[in-house]
């Protein structure tokens, strides 16, 4: 009966439906839920967005190539661990290895998704490959798309900029830095000792010159050295964290650049293949044109020979007709 609907399984199934059937299937499921008086769930289903072509292909991969998706999710987790290890231990080799594994998992899954697109009649263009690659890098690094694809419910494309690896280490370093600066500013606010100058409305009594005692108060600013003395280690830690964060950012940039280069290599290879095919087609067309030209030449020569034979035949007929007439007259 409708009340026995396994809603989560049905929702996951929606994202595996042919893309053109998603809206009708979603609305039908919402209708069944309303009939079953499950209005809240019906509203939730009705509000679900139709997935993008990219997301649909990756959801299909989750259903049909689960092992490849698991490999990517695992590679993404290893890459996040490698970023944390870089920040804590400076382990660059581990980060390089994890980055290479993540790129390999992405490339393998992109190829599987392109096959899904081709089987369903969707174009597999360089732009589609770029969207797939960017989305999978985001899945590897960001929790929201990761969770969606793990459940086979990814609904939109994502950008490589959505990656969260570096933010984890960077955010750990940044708040402490802000926290250290905040107390320093609070220390400066203790300088409202200067308001004591407000007590100088008694300036008319210049003899007393209370402003000069305030000069020693300014000399009390040597408390700042105390602040500097407090933070030699904290400053070194902060500098180390900044260097590590910068290294993470540079490594991410290198990863993206290498990925972009790989895509450009693929595009160049595809373009060269198309060029070779076009040249081959042009050569074939040239050969066919030459063969057609020769055939036309042979046909023209044959036509000329036929015309000459026709002329001779007419002359022969004319001669024979004249002779017959001559014989008849005699």
Q: pLDDT below 50 for ≥5 consecutive residues: which ranges? A: 162-220, 222-228
Rounded Rg: 41 Å
Write down how many β-strands occur, each being a DSSP E stretch of 2 or more residues.
0
Order of helices and strands: HHHHHHHHHHHH
How is the main sheet built? none
| Spatial shape | elongated
Coarse structural class: mainly alpha
Short descriptors:
single chain, 330 residues, mainly alpha, 12 helices, 78% helix
Structure in words:
78% of the residues lie in helices and 0% in strands. The longest helix has 98 residues, at 232-329. It has 330 residues and is an all-alpha fold.
Strand and helix layout:
Layout: H1 7-14, H2 22-35, H3 39-46, H4 53-64, H5 66-89, H6 92-119, H7 126-141, H8 143-150, H9 165-189, H10 211-219, H11 223-230, H12 232-329
Summarize, please:
With 330 residues, the chain is mainly α. It has 12 helices and no strands.
């Amino acid at each position: 009966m409708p009340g026995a609907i396994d809603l989560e399984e049905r929702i996951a199934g929606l994202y595996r439906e042919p893309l053109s059937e998603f809206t009708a299937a979603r609305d039908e499921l919402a209708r069944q839920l309303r009939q079953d008086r499950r209005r809240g769930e019906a509203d939730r289903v009705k509000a679900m967005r139709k997935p993008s072509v990219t997301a649909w292909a990756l959801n299909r991969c989750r259903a049909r190539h689960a092992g490849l998706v698991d490999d990517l999710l695992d590679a993404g987790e290893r890459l996040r661990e490698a970023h944390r290890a870089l920040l804590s231990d400076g382990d660059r080799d581990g980060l390089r290895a994890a980055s290479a594994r993540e790129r390999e998992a992405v490339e393998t899954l992109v190829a599987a998704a392109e096959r899904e697109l081709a089987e369903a009649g969707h174009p597999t263009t360089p732009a589609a490959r770029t969207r797939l690659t960017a989305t999978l890098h985001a899945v590897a690094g960001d929790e929201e798309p990761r969770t969606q694809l793990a459940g086979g419910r990814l609904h939109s494309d994502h950008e490589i900029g959505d990656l969260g690896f570096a933010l984890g280490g960077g955010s750990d370093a940044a708040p402490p830095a802000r926290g250290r600066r905040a107390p320093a500013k609070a220390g400066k606010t203790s300088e409202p000792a200067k308001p004591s100058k407000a007590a100088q409305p008694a300036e008319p009594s210049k003899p007393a010159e209370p402003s000069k005692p305030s000069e020693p108060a300014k000399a009390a600013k040597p408390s700042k050295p105390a602040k500097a003395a407090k933070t030699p280690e904290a400053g070194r830690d902060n500098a180390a964290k900044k260097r590590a964060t910068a290294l993470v950012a540079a490594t991410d940039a290198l990863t993206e650049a290498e990925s972009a280069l790989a895509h450009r290599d693929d595009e160049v290879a595809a373009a060269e293949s198309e060029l070779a095919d076009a040249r081959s087609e042009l050569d074939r067309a040239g050969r066919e044109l030459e063969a057609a030209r020769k055939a036309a030449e042979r046909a023209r020569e044959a036509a000329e020979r036929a015309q000459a034979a026709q002329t001779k035949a007419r002359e022969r007929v004319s001669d024979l007709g004249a002779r017959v007439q001559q014989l008849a007259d005699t």
